[in-house]
Amino acid sequence: MNVKIEESWRQQLQEEFNKPYFEKLVAFVKSEYERAHILPLGHQIFHVFNSCPFEKVKVVILGQDPYPNPGQYYGICFSVPDGVTIPGSLANIFKEINQDLGKPIPTSGNLDRWVTQGVFPMNSVLTVRAHETGSHRNMGWEIFTDAVIRKLSDKRENLVFMLWGSYAKEKRSLIDTNKHLVLTTVHPSPRSAEYGFFGCKHFSKANAFLQSKGIKEINW
Question: What is the pTM for the complete model shown?
């Protein structure tokens, strides 16, 4: 199957695109766009891939579902466009960065500036019905994004994987911890952040690891 995606990712993932499950997934997603309000816009589904080529990835942040509210999700996990109210989880991420590194808390929730530096924030499910969290779970996206994690683990070295919350922590088994740094804690959601996300210092730990490997750190 021919999928419109950045070329280095296409080369890595073509074998997934050719599998029967992906064909079924594409048929499902297309039918959903025809009959319901689906997020993000079709051309934004692979936005994080198109913005951060395979060899440029330094830090992987794993999420679960896209934001279900129209105007928020455009293909980058946790990120929202300029001018959109910063969601609670992202506000807590910024708060931890402020406590960890002393960086001022941004007024915009747009994380494109991270992505251009090699941060790869990816949800395990890449589409959702508007106002229906989790409505596209178990349709094939998880198989695909698990393959993405495995590919990054196998083909790259010295990456940082940030796994926040019980769902993301389950992905640890896909990652070679001898080659990569895996950082885990609770989810930054307002419901759980105070139970370990605040004070986790993942951002300084990530930068210290990258520096130790001779890799330029992230300006969080």
Answer: 0.96
**Domain annotation covers residue 218:** no
Give Cα 169 distance to the centre of its chain.
13
Looking at the structure of the chain, the number of domains it has is 1
CATH number at residue 151: 3.40.470.10
**Average pLDDT in the 23-47 region?**
97
- Read off the pLDDT of residues 27-36 as tens digits, 9 standing for 90 and up: 999 999 999 9
- Tell me if 1 sits within 8 A of 27, measured CB to CB: no
Q: Is 100 a catalytic residue?
A: no
User: Which position among 65, 146, 154, 176 bears the catalytic label?
Assistant: 65
Q: Has residue 62 been placed in a domain?
A: yes
Alpha helices in the chain (DSSP H): 7-17, 20-35, 47-51, 88-101, 112-115, 141-155, 166-169, 202-212
